[in-house]
Amino acid sequence: MAKTKELSKDTGNKIVDLHQAGKTESAIGKQLGVKKSTVGAIIRKWKTYKTTDNLPRSGAPRKISPRGVKMITRTCCAE
């Protein structure tokens, strides 16, 4: 999967406002320059979580603290 930019909170809020005003997904996409599928995903997220913020993703937590990373970096780069 290709890396893509995340939409700003402002753009997400505009999408939700236009949706509540009765605009279609394709009309919103054309107006804001966003794909229709992205508009649909933002609206679905808003209906489920009542937010347009970027939600935390799944994944294993870091095993080492930022302090530990610095210590390892100093040890490796000292040679």
From TrEMBL:
SUPFAM superfamilies: Homeodomain-like. Residues 1-52 form the Sleeping Beauty transposase HTH domain. Pfam families: HTH_SB. It comes from the Eukaryota. Gene3D superfamilies: Winged helix-like DNA-binding domain superfamily/Winged helix DNA-binding domain. InterPro entries: Homeodomain-like_sf (IPR009057), HTH_SB (IPR057667), WH-like_DNA-bd_sf (IPR036388). This is Sleeping Beauty transposase HTH domain-containing protein.
